[in-house]
Amino acid sequence: MTKTSLLAIALALAPLSSLAAGPRPELQPSARFSVYGHGAAATPPMGWNPWNAFRTEVTQDKILSVAETIKRNGMQKAGYRYVNIDDGWWLQRRADGGIQIRTTMFPMAASRSGPPSLRPWTDHLHAMGFKAGLYTDVGRNACSQAHDAHSPNLPVGTVAQREIGLEGFEASDLATMFGEWGFDYIKVDACGLADFGEGSKALASATYREGRPLIVRADAQATDADKVETAYARVGRLLAGLNPDDDFVLSICPWGEAGVGNWGGRHGNLWRTSADIEPNWDSMLHNFDTASRRELYAGPGRWNDPDMLAVGLGEFDARHPVEARTHFSMWAILAAPLLVGFDLNHASPAQVAMLTNPEVIAINQDAAGNQGRIVFHEGDVQVLVKPLAQRGERGVLLLNRGNRAVQARVDAAQMQLDPGEPMQVRDAWAGRDLATSGAVLEFDLPAHGSMLLKVRGKPASGDATALGDISGRIHVAVDGLSGYSARPAEVSGTPRVDATPAGQPLRIAGTTYARGIGIHADSRLEVKTAGEFSRFQALAGVDDAAAASGGTVQFRVYGDGRLLFTSPALARGQAPVPINVDVRGVQVLELVAEAAPEAGSAAASASRASTPVVAWAHADLR
Ligand code: GLA
For residue 148, how far is its CA from the centre of ligand 1 (angstroms)? Predict the structure, then answer.
């Protein structure tokens, strides 16, 4: 088709009004990689947190003895650096605005003249070679005050004295914690924004001030996502200002609510995607599922957090080595933070060996920071593939979620490797190469079993770099879905690598494409090209998964804010438009898909959820 006839189609299909109005503001190129960009989380944070073992029944001695164990048993060397304090460390808010530390829990804090300080605590951990973490809440009150009513370690005193959360004290509390006390990591919880509303259990005790909840769990409509985001954005800005050396980590903890999955990476380093993990198989699977389709949101400095590891507890204790290893492998392939939460003083040598396996940790800590993505899911079997920094290398997890033995397989194409070229396959847990032949790998997996591999081959994209192989360098600036709710991603759909948001193969006008990005319009992706590439090529089109009446989509490509390519308005069923643009020197490439509702279709424009699914197929950089 000639350029002129394409243009004619474009003019016929595009409602002039929408083009004349210009792009929606959030679809304008930002010319930057708009992630948080602060903090020290180039790879997923690793460490220990007392909550899953001790809840608020924690003392200085308990934490220290675990820290000493981590130092002695090889875990510190294996990468576990953060020793965190969770809920329970505070006694009350003082009249001068400071927080009184519960010195019965941390006698070290009282060892100085003047108000208690946790500086001796962080000094001690630093001297041991650790980083020190603390816990607070973005609202006025903390989670224990709502959910651990019988804890002996709740803040005491008047209603005001019990308000130990950040709200109203953001700047001074964070200055104390990071400036005076010297912490390196903070987990900022959100119960203060959720659990102290009218009719709540906590409020009935008459010891808390009522606050209109900004977060209503599992109810995206009643939740004020913008206000929650604003509160966390403020914390992120304050921390960046207080830590010019960027040696800190901000953990955002609204349990997958308030759309945090979409904005967490713009304001902090990790964000919870779900409710608290419980030490049982189903809870672990559920938490995994809330993160496992969000590979386009993670990357160096920003991680989906399906919660701390339950390894060592309940159905993952020493009597369940298969479940423990599978759980650990799942967190490893997701590039999830690795925060152990059991009393390591009681860890068996086998448990320590598991937690310190160098090749498994290397897959989690790989410098590219790509999150593993699901390439296969049928019945109880899932296969995830995580492109590693070394070209052609992938971490691969074959997973049996069910309680019957299964056979699982993965082929070269699913790993985005060239089936005609040899593959080297290594069993990551055993640390040994496997003899394989052919392009298909097959394994018997026992109930709840898994196989974690490192595979090396020739990339299916040849000499080019597929966007899917550098998902850690992609930021979903606008995802095309209004209001991601607390529902697991498989319900709401998210932009995906090599698949549509619903997990189907990418398909344009009847042709299936093995690789690319599937996303809804209206959307904007930022790709951190960092001046390393010379050309960007893709085939862009409306995916066959789009509704037949979905209107048209215009595709645009920008390099550092400069328009490099504009497509005609394309409808479902039309052939994809080839893109081939010069990106030499470009730091940030942006891919915009903007929908124009069909003329006269008020319903289509009113409901953004019905905007078309689009595919940036074979989107490669070279
Ligand atoms: C919330 C968090 C947990 C833990 C507790 C402490 O439930 O999600 O990880 O910090 O609060 O009360």
Answer: 10
User: Is the bond leading into 87 cis (omega within 30 degrees of zero)?
Assistant: no
381: CA distance to ligand 1 center in Å?
A: 31
Distance from residue 88's CA to the centre of ligand 1 (Å): 10
68 vs 335: CA distance, rounded Å = 26
> How much helix, strand and coil, in percent to the nearest 5, is found in the chain?
25, 25, 45
Beta 577-582 vs 562-566: how paired, if at all? Answer: unpaired
pLDDT score for 13:
42
Distances from the Cα of 80 to the Cα of 74, 312, 387, 408, 508, angstroms: 9, 16, 23, 32, 46
Query: Which parts of 140-224 fold into alpha helices (H)?
Result: 143-147, 170-174, 201-204
Distance (Å, rounded) from C-alpha 165 to C-alpha 158? 14
Give 189 Cα–ligand 1 centroid separation in angstroms. Answer: 7
Which of ligand 1's atoms lies nearest the C-alpha of 147?
A: 12
pLDDT at 14 (0 to 100)? 39
Query: Nearest to residue 416, comparing CAs of 444, 436, 388?
Result: 388
Q: Which residues pair with 304 in a beta bridge?
A: 271
Going by CA atoms, what residue is nearest to atom 8 of ligand 1? Answer: 276
| The pair of three-digit structure tokens given for residue 347, joined into one six-digit string | 């860890």
Residues of the chain with pLDDT under 50: 1-20, 483-491, 602-609
Query: How many CA atoms lie less than 13 Å away from 18 in the CB half-sphere?
Result: 22
Question: Is 536:557 a contact under the CB 8 Å cutoff?
Answer: yes
The closest-lying atom of ligand 1 relative to the alpha carbon of residue 255 is: 8
Nearest to 343 by CA among 45, 105, 68, 143: 68
Strands (E), 388-462: 393-400, 406-411, 424-427, 432-434, 440-445, 450-456
Farthest CA pair distance, the chain: 82
How many whole angstroms separate alpha carbon 471 and alpha carbon 299? 7
Question: What are the beta bridge partners of residue 434?
Answer: 425
Q: What DSSP element (H or E) covers 375? A: strand 373-378
Question: Is 138:231 a contact under the CB 8 Å cutoff?
Answer: yes
Q: Which atom of ligand 1 is nearest to the CA of 272?
A: 8
The tokens describing 64, both together, are 């220290």
As for ligand 1, residues whose beta carbon falls within 6 Å of it are 51, 86-87, 143-144, 189, 253, 255, 276
Atom of ligand 1 nearest to the CA of 308: 9
185-189: strand order across its sheet: 303-305, 270-272, 249-253, 185-189, 131-137, 82-84, 46-48, 338-340
**Average pLDDT of the chain?**
92
Ligand 1 centroid, distance to 430 Cα (angstroms)? 35
